[in-house]
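Saturday, quiet lab. Running sequence design on the structure tokens for the scaffold JK sent over.
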């Protein structure tokens, strides 16, 4: 597995033609989705119903539905990284399903914690089935994800299980910080980065290195994939923060200025508050309100965030982490063709409509 750095970029990979990201992602989803559904169908019926609704397979009555499919970023990354490390496809798909189940565990719980009533243009699961059902369904997915990896067995399976459990602990820590930040008057950029590492980057890091760990790849390879996933996660959250303020509801599935109404201290907001610009004081006054911002207040806040440079700063940071992610791929000694595909998909996943 060891070898010289692979010359690779998002658009040029030497002798390897850049693949069509959409086609690759669709093919991998075609592998992972049936496996995910088979596992979910083995859960107790009430839990399987909530999961099916949450991911868009079913309507609230349990009938088949055609929901808006997500990009499946984590399972796609998991399968490609596993392939690059030489892992068998069946095990790679199992790892991808486990990562996706952890992701949906976190989403089910996050919607309850944040009080978000919509996800992907539909009522959130907790508003349909109740808070207890949503929480218990998330718990079932979490337990199932660990079981999927633990059943692989052997030394590599044990290391992968430990990695997955440590990742869940990071997710919980990151979400706890995120909730705490909403109650605090000031948050530093370093504190924000630490929160994002736990809440978002840790799971993408896990997705990128879980397959290589299961393949028994050396630390230089697993570490490279982990760093790639971490930088990708940081960039992904920064883009998500931008969408939370300036995103088109038709694409994001969330109401206009959703994060601003909740006075969420996302990256653009923190950059603006710490900018020293004249509008920062007024923005702080708005974010110190004890209630959710109304439409006029949210509109004013969004204008101030952009005026104080928050939007520009977040876009620049997202670009920096994207380049760092691609740079780590260049240093990984693994299958060049799969790394080329990963690079192309990295750029694709981060080009999200605003």
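Result came back. Writing it out in full:
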């Amino acid at each position: 597995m060891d070898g010289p750095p692979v010359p690779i970029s998002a658009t040029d990979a030497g002798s390897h033609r850049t693949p069509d990201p959409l086609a690759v992602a669709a093919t991998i989803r075609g592998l992972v989705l049936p496996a995910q559904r088979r596992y979910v169908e083995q859960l107790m019926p009430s839990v399987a119903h909530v999961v099916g609704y949450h991911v868009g397979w079913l309507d609230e009555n349990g009938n088949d539905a055609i929901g808006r499919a997500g990009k499946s970023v984590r399972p796609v990354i998991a399968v490609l990284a596993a392939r690059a490390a030489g892992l068998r496809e069946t095990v790679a798909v199992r790892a991808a399903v486990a990562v996706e189940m952890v992701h949906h565990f976190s989403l089910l719980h996050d919607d309850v914690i944040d009080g978000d009533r919509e996800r992907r243009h539909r009522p959130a699961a907790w508003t349909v089935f109740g808070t207890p059902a949503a929480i218990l369904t998330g718990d079932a997915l979490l337990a199932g994800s660990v079981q999927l990896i633990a059943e692989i067995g052997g030394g590599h399976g044990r290391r992968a299980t430990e990695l997955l459990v440590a990742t869940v602990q990071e997710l919980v820590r990151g979400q706890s910080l995120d909730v705490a930040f909403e109650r605090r008057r000031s948050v530093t950029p370093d504190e924000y980065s630490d929160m994002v590492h736990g809440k978002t980057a840790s799971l993408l890091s896990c997705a990128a290195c879980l397959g290589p760990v299961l393949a028994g790849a050396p630390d230089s390879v697993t570490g490279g994939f982990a760093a790639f996933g971490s930088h990708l996660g940081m960039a992904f959250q920064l883009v998500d923060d931008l969408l939370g303020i300036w995103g088109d509801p038709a694409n994001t599935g969330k109401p206009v200025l959703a994060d601003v109404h909740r006075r969420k201290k996302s990256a653009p907001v923190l950059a603006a508050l710490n900018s020293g610009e004249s509008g920062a004081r007024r923005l702080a006054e708005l974010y110190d309100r004890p209630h959710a911002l109304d439409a006029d207040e949210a509109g004013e806040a969004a204008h101030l965030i952009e005026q104080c440079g928050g939007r520009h700063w977040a876009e620049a940071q997202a670009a920096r982490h994207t380049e760092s992610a691609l740079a780590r791929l260049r240093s990984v000694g693994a299958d060049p063709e799969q790394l080329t595909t990963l690079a192309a998909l990295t750029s694709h996943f981060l080009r999200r409509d605003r």
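Notes for JK: The CA atoms of residues 265 and 337 lie 40 Å apart. The chain has a mean pLDDT of 90. Ask whether to fix the surface positions before the next round.
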